[in-house]
């Protein structure tokens, strides 16, 4: 950015936010370093925006859009929109030499009069949401990891511990408040701007800046679940049961995640599982609790609260590591999954000498019940037919310590993902969908929603952002038009 242009942008930003460091941070200051160093991944921390704008009110968000719009459309600046900043790939919510709009100061959790819905400002995390709602005996279909932010999680679709009964997390949204490219604040719900409401459920940052999300609530009773650990040789039994669970289990009050993992020189297999109505070791989870042997001293199965289980998962990652995610979606097939694990093992052997290396291969079922309940909730951008299920979202997730290992780990993991997709495709088991919250920047996520949905999303973009501000000027995330 030229000095003259930098001055123009700074003047625009200060006209809305003032010049205080709490609202506007510039390079070379403690506030800038603290804010820019607080992302989930080191790759986002290493990007250096020219300015970090930190609005505290919706009106300030509107003002920022209005003063930056002309600069964005003329190509003199690009912007990033940041919630908590949990997506790990570089540039997802930060922008080199541009303006990062950090929404973490937008706070507020407000129940409606009859407590059937809650409006959540996008600067909140699920930990703060659950803590507030549980004071009223309530909860909602939010993130499985408590410290994840509200905005990006919902705009990516999201999976919750209650997804089998309630669909994707975004399916519980009754209304979005969103600042359009014009600077206008609008409401999008089933009765008002319903096309935008549907598009935002999985449509990411393509249509405006969402400032709050209203979701349905429900009673927060005790849950039963936690993590169970097994030695590596149990993998085939556990995942065979996971396939049977996905295909046959009728209980909609259960949610699971299975994975093979490596860390600290050891391998193990894990299953995270919960019964959301609090039944202790119900038949629907004996697919997993019955697998033996187990590493008993590491198991955490118990009766507890929704918030406690989500906070438990928060402890398995730390901010600032070299975190990487990539994902694909396949039909539930144990023979395919066995080969996937073998290929993952080959990749592990080639890169496990990297300092601080941790590597997991996860399987997250999308049951037919989940997809049917998602469809009943009014539809979303992902547009997955219930007849496509059951499916597994496959998450490939390495993390490591040193930048000098970046090149070889990226190459190995990208090669693995490509080979997994090719194998699944050859066997007719690859699904078009890529789970948005786990996708890598090279994925054409929106194409994975299917042509009909992508065409609808482009129509919504043209209607509410006719000049394409959020397509041209906000390169982070996944765009409707891919270069």
TrEMBL record:
Residues covered by the FAD-binding PCMH-type domain: 45-220
Q: Which UniProt keywords apply?
A: FAD, Flavoprotein, Oxidoreductase
Tell me where on the tree of life, at the top rank, the source sits.
Eukaryota
Family matches, as InterPro entries: FAD-bd_PCMH, FAD-bd_PCMH-like_sf, FAD-bd_PCMH_sub1, FAD-bd_PCMH_sub2, FAD-linked_Oxase-like_C, FAD-linked_Oxidoreductase, Oxid_FAD_bind_N
What PROSITE patterns does the record point to? FAD_PCMH (PS51387)
The record, for Pfam families, names: FAD_binding_4
Task: Report if keyword Flavoprotein is assigned.
Answer: yes
- GO MF terms, alphabetically ordered: FAD binding; oxidoreductase activity
Q: What is the residue range of the signal peptide feature?
A: none
Entry similarity comment: Belongs to the oxygen-dependent FAD-linked oxidoreductase family.
- Please give the name of this protein: Bifunctional solanapyrone synthase
